[in-house]
Design a protein that fits this description.
The chain has a single domain, classed as Rossmann fold (3-Layer(aba) Sandwich). With 260 residues, the chain is of the alpha/beta class. Helix content is 46%, strand content 18%. This is Alpha/beta hydrolase.
Amino acid sequence: MSTAEINGITIGYDDTGAGPPVVLVHGHPFDRSMWDPQVTSLTGRFITADLRGYGSTTVVGGRTPLPVFAEDVAGLLDHLGLDEVVLGGLSMGGQIVMECYHQFPDRIRALLLADTFPRADTPEAQAHRRTTADRLEAEGMIGYARENLAKMIAPYNVEAMPAVAAHVMTMMASAPAAGAAAALRGRAERPDYRDLLTTVTVPTLIVVGRDDEFTPVADAEEMHALIPGSTLVVVEGAAHLPNLEQPAAFNEALGAFLRG
């Protein structure tokens, strides 16, 4: 692992392989290890970092809006001297990627949007995120992790893939509660990105697990309709984390996209 001092925090990241850089942004409440099946199996240069508040990166409490996460991504690109990258993210990571495209589209040569959605939260969803944030700070991550494991990965995969289930559970349970809560509060205030997606001019791959409850296939289809020339891949036998549940299928789609 390497570290970088960016925007007043210390970011932990990995930079492996060679070739045109691909930056992958993890979701909530995970860390950069969620991308291990891609980094270890696909050919190329992959950069994965822990977001502020997660993993080995500095924990910042309170509220972390998506623009702040995007500024951290830009800061890491500056630190690494990267003018242009393929940028991808899953779930919250995908929404951070959308904010990155809003802030610095000229530095993005292609997009990966996995198991995410572009709409702003409803008032009810905002209230739920804030209540959950308060709960995480009060109770810690264990209860939240147990409740959400069989939604993050499909219930049938919890039984069939114990190693994957253990990895996902470990990431969630070990996430710093203050950082995860700050991200939830900031995410509740995010804008609607649907208009932005209609302006995307770079190649875009949209991937979703067939049985994703958090971001159903309909959300991916909506993004596919909004982004001109985008490619949509639905991964069978997976829920919210197809890159972990069905890494071969996910890697086949991403590898073909990158080669293209």
